[in-house]
Amino acid sequence: MANFQLKDTVPDFTLPSVAGEKFSFKEHQKEHDSWHLIVFFRGAWCPVCQEELREFQANKEKFEEQGVHILAVANDDLEDLQEYANKENITFPIMADKELEAIKAYDVYYHGEDAPYEDHGEHGEPAYFLVNEKGELMYQQQQTGPFGRPHPDELLRTVKYIKKNVK
């Protein structure tokens, strides 16, 4: 798991997005002087992830009211992610990380060939990083499997709590 400590500056990444452009986290931070919730998910093929992304879309305005932009990353094929995002009208950025750039930079658990159990082939597992406007980590949670991930409502409560109590 990541060795990030709270207030550490998180790594930048540039990945292809479902919008058909290269998405630079650093450039997005400059354009949007706000907090970001980076959500790593297994892929467009994962039914639990599909439901989670729909829930994030349904709560997108609530996150934005708290000054938080949602970003999502998976090491799935860009075309599959685009198809899913279009079908479900997902409007927050979704990026394809086929080369594992962000997954490795954030030390997201990767279910590879050496994993102790069989599970839909190779893929990154769910992880969540809340980053303030300075690029500093304010919260993180990582999974080693598909279940136990926080619901967007829980993450909203976490955001509100942290923002209220920030020093």
From TrEMBL:
Is ATP-binding one of the keywords UniProt gives this record? no
Pfam families under this entry? AhpC-TSA
Q: Which UniProt keywords apply?
A: Disulfide bond, Oxidoreductase, Peroxidase
EC category name: oxidoreductase
The answer on whether this UniProt entry bears the keyword Transferase reads no
List GO molecular-function terms, semicolon-separated.
thioredoxin-dependent peroxiredoxin activity
Query: Which EC number(s) does the record attach to this protein?
Result: 1.11.1.24
The residue ranges of the Thioredoxin domain are: 4-164
Please name the InterPro entries in this protein's record.
AhpC/TSA, Peroxiredoxin_AhpC-typ, Thioredoxin-like_sf, Thioredoxin_domain, Thioredoxin_ResA/DsbE_sf
Top-level taxon of origin: Bacteria
PROSITE patterns with a match to the protein in the record:
THIOREDOXIN_2
Task: List the protein's name.
Answer: Peroxiredoxin family protein
